[in-house]
Amino acid sequence: MLALQVTAIVFILISAALMFGPQLAVYGPRALPRLAQDEQARFVGGCLTSVLVLAVMVPYFTEAFSSGGGALTLVMAELVSMQFSPV
Length: 87
Hints:
This protein has 4 helices and no strands. By secondary structure, the protein is mainly alpha-helical.
């Protein structure tokens, strides 16, 4: 799992470098305000950031679903039966 996680993070960083690197290499730090105003660059940056956070947090999500047991079963039972108990 760690190897897949590291591979995913490396590919995400390569994607970010290929998206933003050429503009930063040509224009230098002067390109940062222009990139911050560009809607497409902000969208891609947000997507890459979201995927990076997901790649880092995946082991914790799988652990919660595989060993979550009681709490996860209780929530699913309430959703399936539509009988919610007061807290």
